[in-house]
Amino acid sequence: MKTAQASRETVAVFGSTGSIGTSTLDVLERNQARYQVTALTANTNVELIFQQCLKFKPATAAMAQPEAAVALAQRLKAANSSTTVINSTDALSQIAADPSVQTVMASIVGFAGLQPTITAARHGKRILLANKEAMVVAGELLNEAARESGASIIPVDSEHNAIFQCLPESNRCDPVKTLHGGVSSLVLTASGGPFRKYTEEQMQSVTVEQALSHPNWEMGQKVTIDSATLMNKGLEVIEASYLFGVDESQIEVLVHPESTVHSMVRFADGSVLAQLGQADMRTPIANALAWPDRIDAGVEPLDFIRLGSLHFEAPDMQRFPCLALARQALRQGNGATGVLNAANEVAVEQFVTGRIGFTDISRINAHALQNYTGAVPENIEDLFRLDHSVRQFALEYIDRELPLTGM
Ligand SMILES: NC(=O)c1ccc[n+]([C@@H]2O[C@H](COP(=O)([O-])OP(=O)(O)OC[C@H]3O[C@@H](n4cnc5c(N)ncnc54)[C@H](OP(=O)(O)O)[C@@H]3O)[C@@H](O)[C@H]2O)c1
Known about the structure:
Layout: H1 2-6, E1 9-14, H2 19-30, E2 35-42, H3 46-56, E3 60-63, H4 66-78, E4 84-85, H5 91-97, E5 103-106, H6 114-122, E6 126-129, H7 132-149, E7 152-155, H8 158-166, E8 183-190, H9 200-203, H10 208-211, H11 221-229, H12 231-244, E9 251-255, E10 261-267, E11 272-276, H13 282-290, H14 304-307, H15 321-332, H16 336-352, H17 360-371, H18 380-401
Helix pairs in contact: 3-4, 5-6, 6-7, 7-12, 7-16, 12-15, 15-16, 15-17, 16-17, 16-18, 17-18
């Protein structure tokens, strides 16, 4: 028994209480003979992580909020659990650097995931990257850290995982990040979100509830709103550029309402390779976990007869300006992707609380990208300063310009 456990791959799940985190634990549970959960982290959801700790018995757990860490420690102690709660400001980084952790599922949402992800990259971990914002904000630094430490970054985002699967062997996890093997471009597919057919006028009055009703995917709140504005696809264009070493001009976006073709790769000879599957994140999670092997993900086989037909259309950049803003930020470089990400995180938070309207999200993002001026970030500390100061900048803009447009 002891020998079998020692040979299992040790996995830390960051953001274990979220949509990706819970799907990851589902896949890990199906493949217990192969994986051992050694650490779990969350922000405030004490009840769920407590249950997860009882079930998976990780050695350590951590909460980003100190009060939540205290509450979790009390609950676990009362339940005679063997899990130790690390309660300190650098608890997440401690886990990311822990030598007993081999694989890190980076599934914290937003900029908050950057610190543990970069720590994991510096410590040579196998990183399964769902936290796209970390790559958007710090793509070059993450790649550099992984190159130096020997860490690998395997994409979990369904589109990037699809591309990862379609790319020639020599391009996957290539630390040099240059496309070869005859690859000519990447094609990211997008469902188009709940407002694919809305007019600009209709979009002025959409509610938070409507924006949170994604037609195909069940996801966390932030990524669902990003999908409705197409900012999610914009962030994914940036993520793809850093993950695969591709110019912005080599990344196409194609609206595909069925979300069956998860993305594609075009080759010089005219071939296009696509990865297809259900709209279920357990497939890319299982692929990233086991690559180059394949393991059970608990996902139903794709039924082509029921599916009938697949549709594709061009994205409307006029009605969804966030996609164009992301492309602009990527071309601009010099920290512009961090500016856009910070403004967008503020805008989404303010929309969800009902303070601003849906179309204000792109206005705030455009304002920050065009008008924020600050020093070009050169290291991780600069990126934290940039994020903080853009958030202030965006909030001041909302106070000044948008007090009456909220719903
Ligand atoms: N959901 C999907 O299908 C999907 C698909 C592709 C990519 N992604 C990407 O995966 C990431 C996670 O998305 P999600 O949908 O799983 O998000 P989610 O459901 O909102 O879960 C977020 C997780 O992060 C934790 N968290 C939130 N704020 C934190 C903070 N400040 N510090 C530390 N932990 C924090 C949450 O803890 P609490 O529960 O305690 O708040 C939760 O465990 C995002 O970057 C998203 O873009 C998601």
